[in-house]
Write a structure and sequence with these properties.
This protein has 2 helices and 6 strands. The chain has about 120 residues and is an alpha+beta fold.
């Protein structure tokens, strides 16, 4: 399973999606990359590896309903970000409804960031 998960490429999003810990209803940070198996969260705190969270993800206002989705995800790793004072936490999605998975696929299609190709060195 972990090898399969690593083969899936996360899509860098052109919008930040706020991830809110449902217990105690506080923002953890912003999702900057996502796929159906997991996501990368940029936040100001170090999140403990293997910690599981129930998260509400606020969706872009331009996306038709719903305003947010809920999923359960586990922290795989947390590392310092290139952005000073921030950390990047990789999450594995443990549970997401079929509708939530469909919305994640729509986010990947409609809100991916088109990065210019890297020039050869």
């Amino acid at each position: 399973m972990s090898n399969e998960r690593r083969l899936r490429k996360r899509v860098t999003l052109s919008v930040y999606l706020t991830a809110i810990d449902t217990q105690p209803n506080v923002p953890l940070g912003h999702i900057v990359e996502i796929n159906a198996g997991g996501f990368l969260l940029l936040g100001e705190q170090v999140l403990r590896q293997s910690q599981q969270y129930s998260l509400n993800i606020q969706l872009p206002k331009t996306l038709q309903k719903p305003a947010m989705i809920n999923l359960i995800a586990k922290v795989v790793r947390t590392t310092p970000s290139a952005k000073a004072g921030f950390y990047e936490s990789a999450f594995e999605i443990s549970y997401a409804s079929l509708e939530t998975k469909r919305i994640i696929e729509q986010l990947q299609r409609d809100y991916h960031l088109n990065m210019p190709p890297k020039e050869p060195q």
